[in-house]
Amino acid sequence: MTNHVAKENGQTKESSKFFNLKEMPHIVKALDRNQKFHSDILQAIGNTPLVKLTRIPKSEGIKCEMYAKCEFLNPGGSVKDRIAHRMVLDAEERGVLKPGKSVIIEPTSGNTGIGLALAAAVKGYRCIIVLPEKMSDEKVNTLLALGAEIVRTPTEAPSESPESNISVAHRMATEIPDAVVLDQYNNPCNPLAHYDGTAEEILWSLDDAVDMVVLGTGTSGTVSGVAHKVKERCPRCVVVGVDPYGSILAQPEELNQSDVQTYEVEGIGYDFLPRTLDRTVIDKWVKTDDAVSLPMAQRLIKEEGLLCGGSSGSAMWGALQAARELKEGQKCVVLLPDNIRNYMTKFISDPWMEARHFQPVVDKKIWWWDTPVSEELAAPVGSVPLGSSPAQALAALAPAAPLLTVLADDGSIAGVFTADNARRRLANLSGSTSEDLEKFIVKKFYKVDLAENPTLGLVSRILDIAPFVVVVKKDTVSNVQKAVGVITSSDLLGHISKAQYKNGTN
């Protein structure tokens, strides 16, 4: 490449010739497994890359080779694209789904819903997705963008409850003409998609030399389908299932119903055994919790460059525990189910992680940051009994107050009632003020307990992502958390300003 100086209108101008691309170093990838084009986006499902992990296994002292099956690179962003497409194709072949007529309804934690909504968008079906309230807004917005209709159900509703997403979906299917529930929990196409696809890809990539596969368990079609195929070709391969505390999949015979609890990681674990789970092909179980799963997901992003979701952190943490038994030269594959898109306002957010005590509050070296929250800082907040009507709650909501606490019979906080949430209920869900107040309350809200000595810094970080923080104090006799008041940004600013003026702090 040569530079030259040219004269133009008496001015000196530097210019250069374009690069000689033919003479530069080239990196040309083999294209023999890639189609030149796809007839629609559904044909791009599968054939996800298997990526060797380096930094995390090395830092954890793992001797074997570890590989990530990057299912988050599917078109809809998750491993569930595979089963959604397979279930739709099967239902069409059997005449269960009729193009232009049938309505797809599915209970889901979100990713199967996105996969089905993707298929419905391409094929022209009406699609209704029923999912619990804990699932991220990003999942809801993606579903809406794909044209799906959304129905939310209480997170804490057990699977057999009439209010669970499973019960609601099946009830809607009896009420809507031509509705079909493909039922990922009992549909053989769920494990079959992984038996024919995911497992074959893993085996092809590693020339049938797989010593361990580690997979998170939700509907469990992934682990069941992959395990059956891998064990046919690699009988000595160890299959590891990863299950969160609060789920019964790993130990259904040992767990009491009282042990079932909610957790933040989405897409894995259940309070019942799906038919798509074959526990006989799982050699080992690893239990995980939010405190290890979510930071591990952050590490996969920061240290390996894999833009994956929270359940990938669960699978990776479980894989690290299990892979310690493998030797140098052996191969462990961990499946990463979904991507970062669904969690931009959740574990990707430092304030969100700090509010849940999954990581320390950032130290900003500000004079008031480590000051403990005082009871006087919280503005008084009104309350109503859970048995009140929405109309009564609206009447009790003072114009200047951001919320009311809604109290259960034992005095504990059942939730909060806000004008914003009431408006959304009435505007978007065809709600009515004649319904039970429970339909209108927010059950998941940000709070700090004075017994835990929260700081103003923590409150400030929570206010980065929420309009208010409820201050509670545990009653020493009843052991019930009771509301002391509420803190907003205005309250915190006022408190800091007064303290600064009083102390002469800059």
Strand content range: 15-25%
Number of helices: 14
Reading off the top of the CATH hierarchy, the class of the largest domain is best stated as: Alpha Beta
Going by CATH, the architecture of the largest domain would be: 3-Layer(aba) Sandwich
Mean pLDDT: 90
N- to C-terminal separation? 59 Å
Strand arrangement across the biggest beta sheet: 3-4-12-9-10-11
Helical content class: 25-40%
Structural class: alpha/beta
General form: globular
Number of domains: 4
* Number of distinct beta strands: 18
CATH topology of the largest domain: Rossmann fold
Please describe what this structure looks like.
The chain has helices at 55-59, 80-93, 111-123, 137-145, 165-175, 189-205, 221-233, 290-304, 310-323, 350-355, 390-396, 419-428, 456-463, 489-503, and strands at residues 3-8, 11-16, 50-52, 65-70, 103-107, 126-132, 149-153, 179-181, 212-216, 238-244, 284-288, 331-336, 382-385, 404-407, 413-417, 447-449, 469-474, 481-487. With 506 residues, it is an alpha/beta fold. It has 4 domains: 3-44, no CATH class; 50-75 and 194-343, Rossmann fold; 80-181, Rossmann fold (3-Layer(aba) Sandwich), CATH 3.40.50.1100; 359-503, Roll (CBS-domain). The strands form 5 sheets. The chain has a 6-stranded mixed beta sheet with strand order 3-4-12-9-10-11, sandwiched between helices. A 4-stranded parallel beta sheet has the order 7-6-5-8, sandwiched between helices. It has a 3-stranded mixed beta sheet with strand order 13-14-15. Helix 2 packs across helix 3, helix 6 crosses helix 7 and helix 8 crosses helix 9. The termini are far apart. The model is unreliable at 1-6 (pLDDT under 50).
